[in-house]
Amino acid sequence: MLYKVFLIQGGDLRYFILIPVIFFIFVNPAWGIFVNIDGIDKTLIKRIFVSPLEDNIVYVTSENVVFKSQDSGRSWQSIFVAKDGIINDIYVDDSLYDTIYIVTSAGVYSISDGKTEKIFTFSPSVEGKCIGAFKDRLYLGTTVDLRYTYQGAWQWRKLEGLPEKLVVYSLDFSQDRIYLASSKGVYIGKGKDFKNFERVFVLLDENQDDNQTEESPEETEDNLSCRYITVDRYDDRIVYLGLSRGLFVSYDEGKSWKKVLLPLIENVDVRGIFQTKSEKDTLYITTNRGIFLVNLKKEFVSPLFEGLSTQDTYWLDFDRKGRLFVATDRGLFLREQLTSSVYSTKIEEVIEGEPSIEEVQKVALRYNEVHPEKIRQWRNALKLRGLFPEIDISYDKTIYGTYSSGGQFAVGPRDWGVNFSWDVGDVIWNSYEDDVDSRSRLNTQLRINILDDINRVYFERLRIKLELQMGSFSEMERLNKELRLKELTAVLDGYTGGYFSKRIKEKR
Predict the structure, then answer these.
(1) Which domain holds residue 435?
(2) Residue 458, SS3?
(3) What is the reported pTM?
(4) Is 345 domain-assigned?
(5) Local confidence band at 384 (pLDDT 50, 70, 90 cut-offs)
(6) How many domains does the chain contain in total?
(7) CA distances (Å), origin 209, targets 1, 203, 214, 263, 460
């Protein structure tokens, strides 16, 4: 059965929704703060693999270099450099953890026992995209087809039953099935050696006609395109699909699909979808807007951001201690897992003596005259305006006389005159309401910008306080963090007219 999925457009999330979510994540006692890992001379990191048998062994890839650490990321050595292209994927053999396969834009390489061997070379018009293994076969997705070989033989064959010039971006396996995320949607291969393929998810952009879906769309920022597909590690009937504009899920082995319409992730660019061995109903997704923890059963989404200097995340992996490694466009980051009791104590110590975020927001809005009450006062005043007349006061000479008196007129002394007039229509509609609407829109945008700055500065300040209390730094590092703390305090004072520092002194 064929299912067509139309592009679903979504709007930006309002800041008043984001505020409580950020605070919830910050006080979550299960995690520490991301820290940047030094020792890798490349900024853009695309892939990570942590050995499930030895936590000390970690592989990461940049655009053209594979790095290996044997001490949990404290030191790194380059084990492979792609001189003929960029690295698109890496696969570490499930049974031989010292054997890794690297897919570049020009070829496929195998590294085993310290020896590097090129096991496949692409033609100039073909590029490798992804690689994976199932049973005794190695599968390779390219920009034109899907190929396979028996491990060790390196005689690559094209897998039949798929359209011509099919770009395979990601693949995964489940029992007797192979799932492909491609330029034309999702394909499922069944049967012995995956000879029977069926398309179960069709990419259809909102500007395309039904009869255009057979053509492979050019991958641009405006097109809907597949990124990543994976089978649930606890229930192989569930399959997750990451697209350039959202997360999809199938609960019936890919027969039907549903878009995950949850706040924060509705239309993000999903790069990877991951699960841990200890959290059955939880997904971790890497996107162009950061890392999100997603619980589809509880319909819950939380961002993980403390300490990350970028939102552009590509990949992640966990070790057996629960530590989280994240690949970003600004390097490799690590997040330690802390015990609940220690973290809760530290959170209480950090928040103690601080004005709440709600208190700071209210003071800042009033100080900068962008509080919503200001607009309400304007509107109430306009309702009363129609009840008051226009008053015209004059002081002039009075002229007496009529035509019946022969056209003779007399000019009297100067006198006061008062005229009253009402426009009854102002009670129903007042022309000044247009001005209030325009000012209201400007006021609202300014209020959102101020709240955004305050929230960012307020929570960054708390994170630095937490680091100063929990971390051990050199004298210069501690001095820099203390200066940054004073700088953020000065920013909040600027928004509140000095109220923030004054309130801290009162609470101590």
Answers:
(1) 357-507
(2) helix
(3) 0.62
(4) no
(5) low
(6) 2
(7) 20, 11, 10, 29, 48
